[in-house]
Write a structure and sequence with these properties.
By secondary structure, the protein is mainly beta. It has 2 domains: 372 residues, 6 Propeller (Neuraminidase); 161 residues, Jelly Rolls (Sandwich), CATH 2.60.120. It is built from 1 helix and 45 strands. The strands form 10 sheets. Strands 6, 7, 8, 9, 10, 11, 12 and 13 form an 8-stranded antiparallel beta sheet that branches. Strands 31, 33, 34, 36, 41, 42, 43 and 45 form an 8-stranded antiparallel beta sheet that branches. Strands 32-35-44-37-38-39-40 form a 7-stranded antiparallel beta sheet, with no helix packed on it. The two termini are 43 Å apart.
């Protein structure tokens, strides 16, 4: 990937993923022209604008203090090996200025699980403080005990004549930092740089630093490699210029036989149950920055070798990811936990990008087979990129201590100066699940309609016949029971719940799954497969008046769908069921047709 500040992130007609430096007149004019495009084509796929959404959601991780302050690329750790400081969140982000004054990495801390943040230190000084990565020692490494923090980052001067991958160390939980030195260096920033460090331990307990390398661009436009430290980051297997200091030197992990391919943005996670490592990265160039992954048993040997480009990440309902991916692992959601992956953009291969910028992919099969997806906790994607803000650029995932929630952090175009580092946390797609709408509607994505939340109630007010719907939960859910209350605004229409939802998009019957709803007379079970098939109907005793709450409990188990309905607060239950084997898994949702509607007290178990 070309790193050309100031953080506008898009694709030219060759699919090259670039940042725009407004001070470099030599940058091809076609890149500037791309900014005017409403629909961007990547690798033959159309990235249409997403349907209208509710306002940007998320809490402020950091807000700029001046209009010249740019930021992106948030990184975060939860202290787990630091004694009395355990549980604190430590975060930083990419930082630069638009007027070439020097800045630093801002180190932020939260002692209340992300509700509030304060600055505890500033690290380094240069005009462009790019691509930070934080790492906490889980055990003693070299002379440094568990709880020691390392900060890696790429810095550039105002004239961008060098790129330098630097390292700092903290032994007091991020309050103060000491420079360890230059880890890798390069001349220039356009086709000869080093970028995007990420650190972890291999299965021998050695510290590994992965990064993107352009220094051999005649053969590899860019490759992914790693170096190893056996003394906690004091020395590395490769010298600063990339030459070997001790074996194995710098090792290539993804290096395409096609010089045009540009693998970059690597992040690595390890399954603590199976021991499997998984790495995600984009491959720019002809592949348009599509997201790929490889696995490893030791953290240093990936796939079948460097020329093995890995596998493109795709869900079983045709979603793929593009640009700036990150990966995490959670112990919740399956016997082997789940790998979780997000990226700046998502595309539906059948057309459109309905969840782009607000989606997390998951894999509960130890990174084998197809992936599933769920909405992200926040929506940072409103508006196009500017010189100080690139919405959802390199979003970051941090799993909670128990693995049941995921914190999502990314820049969004909001706040006094038009950019804020946003963060928010929500369920990782595991059951049981509750949506009480007490703090908005995190973890939901809407398709058509006008949506709002007030006093614990989710409402859709546009009505009409577009099949307005909102979806939450994980598309990998199989057998479950959903319960919740629904209220229709008019008895001429119907509203209710969706189960086993996959492949949703904007449109009347545009999803695969089951709909269970009510109108003024009946409860209905139907099947939607980009068309409508009624499966069963049951009269509501006494009918249903507009504006009254009605409780539905829906159980899907195997091919069986069982429904119980009653006026909210009543003990009089009306039941009916049907059998259909079309859909075996999927998330949940709400939907209305020819009426506005409201929902509350939704839970899934």
């Amino acid at each position: 990937m070309c790193r050309i500040a100031h953080m506008l992130h898009f694709n030219d007609e060759k699919g090259m993923h670039m940042r725009l430096n407004t001070t470099r007149a030599s940058r091809p004019a076609r890149i500037l022209a791309a900014l005017a495009a409403v629909i961007v084509t990547v690798a033959g796929l159309s990235l249409a604008t997403a349907p209208a959404q509710a306002a940007i959601q998320g809490d402020a991780l950091y807000s700029p203090s001046a209009s010249n302050e740019g930021m992106a690329y948030a990184r975060m750790i939860r202290l787990a090996h630091s004694g009395s400081a355990n549980g604190q969140l430590i975060s930083t982000f990419e930082h630069w200025t638009t007027d070439s004054t020097s800045t630093s990495y801002v180190i932020r801390r939260s002692s209340d699980d992300g509700a509030t943040w304060s600055t505890i230190s500033n690290v380094g000084s240069d005009v462009y403080m790019y691509q930070p990565f934080l790492y906490e020692f889980p055990t003693q490494l070299g002379d440094y005990p568990a709880g020691t923090l390392l900060l890696f980052g790429v810095t550039l001067p105002g004239d961008r004549s060098t790129t330098t991958l630097r390292e700092w160390r903290s032994t007091d939980h991020g309050a103060t930092w000491t420079s360890v030195g230059v880890v890798q260096s390069a001349t220039g920033d356009d086709g000869s740089g080093i970028w995007e460090p990420a650190a972890g331990l291999d299965n021998n307990g050695n510290l590994v630093l992965y990064f993107s390398d352009e220094r051999q661009s005649a053969t590899w436009s860019q490759f992914l490699g790693h170096i190893v430290s056996t003394d906690g980051g004091v020395t590395w297997s490769a010298n600063a210029d990339g030459s070997t200091r001790v074996s194995p030197g710098e090792v290539k992990d993804v290096a395409s036989s096609d010089q045009r391919d540009r693998p970059g943005m690597i992040t690595v996670a390890r399954n603590a149950v199976s021991g499997t490592y998984a790495a995600t990265y984009e491959i720019c160039g002809p592949k348009g920055c599509q997201v790929y992954y490889k696995t490893s048993t030791d953290g240093v040997t990936w796939g079948t070798g460097a020329t093995d480009l890995g596998t493109a990440i795709a869900t079983d309902d045709g979603r793929v990811l593009y640009s700036t991916p990150t990966i995490a692992w959670t112990p919740a959601g399956g016997t082997q936990g789940q790998f979780l992956v997000t990226a700046q953009r998502e595309v539906r291969t059948a057309g459109g990008a309905p969840e782009s910028g607000q989606v997390i992919f998951s894999n509960a099969a130890d990174a084998t087979g197809s992936w599933r997806w769920q909405p992200a906790p926040i929506r940072p994607t409103s508006g196009s990129g500017t010189s100080t803000c690139n919405p959802n650029y390199s979003p970051f995932l941090l799993v909670s201590a128990d693995g049941k929630s995921i914190r999502y952090s990314a820049p969004g175009k909001t706040g006094t100066y038009g950019c804020t580092e946003l963060t928010g946390s929500f369920n990782t797609g595991v059951l049981p699940y509750t949506a009480d709408f007490s703090t908005g509607s995190p973890g939901w994505v809407e398709y058509n309609g006008t949506w709002g939340v007030s006093s614990g109630v989710l409402s859709e007010t546009a009505g009409g016949t577009n099949g307005n719907k909102a979806v939450t939960g994980n598309t990998g859910w199989t057998d479950y029971t959903l319960t919740g209350d629904v209220k229709i605004s008019s008895t001429s229409g119907n509203a209710g719940f969706l189960t086993r939802v996959t492949d949703p998009s904007a449109g009347t019957d545009s999803l695969k799954g089951y709909y269970i709803g009510v109108d003024g007379t009946n409860m209905v079970i139907g099947k939607q497969n980009y068309n409508w098939t009624a499966l069963a109907t049951k009269a509501i005793p006494g009918g249903l008046t507009a504006g009254s709450w009605y409780n539905l409990t829906v159980k899907v188990s195997g091919c069986s769908i069982t429904v119980e309905g009653k006026p909210a607060g009543s003990s009089t239950v009306t039941s009916f069921s049907t059998s259909d084997c079309s859909f075996s898994h999927g998330s949940i949702g709400v939907r209305d047709f020819a009426t506005g509607a409201s929902w509350r007290n939704i839970s899934v178990s």
